[in-house]
Amino acid sequence: MSTADAELQLPLIDLSPYIENAGPVDKERVIAEVSNAARQYGFFQIRGHGIPLNLQSNLLRCMDNVFDLSTEEKMKMSFLQNPCRRGYEAEGMSHREGDPLPDAKECFFIGQEDAFVESAGFFGPNVWPNLPDDDFRNPVWSYYQKTRDLGKIIWTILIEGLGQPAALVDEFAKRPVVPMKMIRYPPHSTTRPGQFGIGAHTDFGGVTILFQQPGKDGLEVWEETKQEWIEVPAREDVYVINCGDMVQRWSGGAYKSARHRVINKVDGQRLSCATFWHGDIHATNPLKPDDPNKDTVGQLLVKRFRTQYSFNKDVVALVGAA
């Protein structure tokens, strides 16, 4: 378990002065706080994010609704059978190379809603469970839109924290890839020795917006300098933001991509939800146009997950050699 020092905790930043377009002094303070946290930890907590509490509680209700469906009903929505990798992932399907055991979690994926499958499955329609719209689709879609918009705001702040203009975000956000993953962890007492909810890893891409079920702790972040795991409490109306490997690469290492893991600390099920805001499939480093490394968002995604998931030839053809 964690060896975290009680005094070591992630910064908690109020985004409201930036989101509400307060005066320049207050906005600059937010930019500096976010930039400093991303440089030191690669992680930070936020409040004043603009996501209503009732939408957060509705998301929890909807996640329980889909995960409480029968195994047969859930497997009919398997993301492995979907060209856009939307839908249900059963427990045990996610097993990173080097981990002794698969993750103890089940997931449900959605993304931007498009009428047709496009770009080899990066875009297309979502899979929606056979539940009343108010018990899943409508609240989940409203929540997705809010966190999708928040992801762009976080990216913009990070860009400004590097001394770049805010408008730069639009250069790689014409049609960004923004998947969302709803997660349910089983009780800690039911997992095997040495098994994690999610094993230690870094996120591959851009910005992650993480919602944790209040009062149900589990997330830990590795602090490289002190060689300790920082426990990140699950607090009401507080989100956790982190930078992925792509942010670290594009920023020339100014911002960190930190390892993190999940250990369900409660003797009961635990819910969380992560929205990943990456950018356009064919985008290269917008912060340094002359960067000799021309890997695109799509290529980085395929490189990272080729050992975990199989990618069809259409995906590989779309992004090019990876």
Structure description:
- With 322 residues, the chain is an alpha+beta fold.
- The protein has a single domain (12-289), classed as B-lactam Antibiotic, Isopenicillin N Synthase, Chain (Jelly Rolls).
- Helix content is 27%, strand content 18%.
- It is built from eight helices and twelve strands.
- The strands form two sheets. Strands 1-2-10-7-12-5-4-3 form an eight-stranded mixed β-sheet.
- Helix 2 crosses helix 5.
- The chain is globular.
- The protein starts with 11 loop residues before the first strand and ends with a helix.
- Mean pLDDT is 90; it is low at 1-5.
- Belongs to the iron/ascorbate-dependent oxidoreductase family.
- Residues 176-280 form the Fe2OG dioxygenase domain.
- GO terms for molecular function: metal ion binding; oxidoreductase activity.
- This is 2OG-Fe(II) oxygenase.
- It comes from Clohesyomyces aquaticus.
Present the secondary structure layout.
Elements (H helix, E strand, L loop, with lengths): L11 E3 L1 H4 L4 H17 L2 E5 L5 H15 L3 H5 L11 E3 L16 E5 L26 H25 L18 E6 L12 E4 L5 E6 L6 E5 L4 E5 L6 E5 L1 H6 L9 E3 L7 E8 L19 H9 L7 H7 L3
Parallel strand pairs: 1-2
Antiparallel strand pairs: 2-10, 3-4, 4-5, 5-12, 6-11, 7-10, 7-12, 8-9, 8-11
Helix pairs in contact: 2-5, 3-5, 7-8
